[in-house]
Amino acid sequence: MRALLWTGVNELAVDTVPDPELINPTDAIVRVTATVTCGSDLHLLAGYVPFMRHGDVVGHEFVGEIVEVGSEVRERRLGERVVVSSFIACGNCWQCRQGNFSLCDNGNPNPGITEAMWGFAPGGCFGYSHAMGGYGGSHAEYIRVPYVDVGAFPVPDDVPELRALFASDAAATGWMGADLGEAGPGQVVAVWGAGGVGLMAARSAQIRGAEQVVVIEPREDRRRFAEVWLGVSTLHPRDAGEGLLELTAGRGPDVTIEAVGMEAAADTDVQAAVDRVGQALRIQTERATAVREAIYHCRKGGTVVILGVFAGWTNRFPLGALMNKGLTVRSSQVHGQRYVPHLLDLMGRGQLDAERLATHEFGLEQGPQAYRMFQHKDDGCLRAVLRPHAAE
Fold first, then answer.
1. 61 vs 48 pLDDT, higher one
2. 184 phi, psi to nearest 5 deg
């Protein structure tokens, strides 16, 4: 089959690789009909997640059709159109029974790497390095889906494919941000980042009844996109402090959601230079500007939710602000299995038109071009969808 491969730092190539095969009786093979770029993939591309190998298939957000199932698959069937959670979970361990699916004790077959880094291993993720299981990614014609009864969900007939695609990760992660922050009536929610996850977090807070949602984003085109699509207020990061105080009568937002990740830009040249040099020299692995701002600008006693992907450590972490303001900090990789069914219901009722994130579409053979456009945000690219079987 054809697949998009990581071949080195900032290098991708499309090549022929072996077709995936069933390994365990709870596996299925899915024919990928649509898959999409994600901001967290850019961390892999840039070499900030140091556990990629030449020839690894990338991608983790996808929909497709089941074409083969293992002998112990009970819920899914051949020919079924499904959206698959990006994180792999068994459904039976203690963490899964608590609904913490991305923390599954059995989803990552390479736990030693992350146990050494973080103390315990989270679950596995499609196409996201050998630290997260070494699974083949979704930017391919076919993909093996472990624990398919747990992680794959039938797409209702009234949900368009592109809309369902984002339930795999972006919409689920955004909804989780609003859920972990307990966003609801009477609250002001501020979201850092107007990429796919940030926009989905903002929309999720609206659906949950937040009184006001504000998006903080440096790019004018993305601020305008958020304003037009969601009707939210937006601020440039340099204006966030004064602007958020003005919007909240000096109190600050009740919930702040960071949806940027380890390659955040700083709002001054000095901050940007310090973070970039520190990351380049491996003095730190993250540029955590958005995390610092979310902590600093959150009201006293408020909640900070970290959704962006981080791998290691950061300098200049505002621990004093966190402790003395009495903040609650919540964070996780996405518990997709917890949220996807509800999201598909919202999508079916027209409340979550996530397909608006898909600004560009390409065939799989154009994958490197799609990522260049996505990485550099050319032509207003918010998310680039790849169609592995476009030529058929």
1. 61
2. -170, -170
DSSP-H helix ranges across the chain: 39-45, 94-97, 111-118, 148-151, 161-165, 170-180, 196-207, 220-230, 240-247, 269-280, 289-297, 319-324, 336-348, 367-376
N- to C-terminal Cα separation, the chain? 13
Residue 207 in tokens: 């659906």
CA distance 255 to 257: 7
How far, in Å, CA of 361 to CA of 244, rounded? 36
CA dist., res. 174 & res. 335, Å (int) = 11
Among 40, 151, 139, CA closest to 106: 151
What are 244's two structure tokens?
């958020």
Place of tokens 């898959």: 35
| Ramachandran sector of residue 281 (left: φ over 0; alpha: ψ -120 to 50; beta: rest) | alpha
Chain segment 191-200, per-residue pLDDT in tens: 999 999 999 9
pTM here is: 0.95
Which amino acid is located at 389 in the chain?
A: H
Coil vs helix vs strand at 8: strand
As beta bridge partners, residue 360 has: 384
Closest C-alpha among 86, 245, 294 to residue 176? 86
- Encoded tokens for 106: 């059995």
| Average predicted confidence (pLDDT) for the chain | 95
User: Are 133 and 102 within 8 A, CB to CB?
Assistant: no
Residue 17's pLDDT is 98
Q: Which pLDDT belongs to residue 282?
A: 67
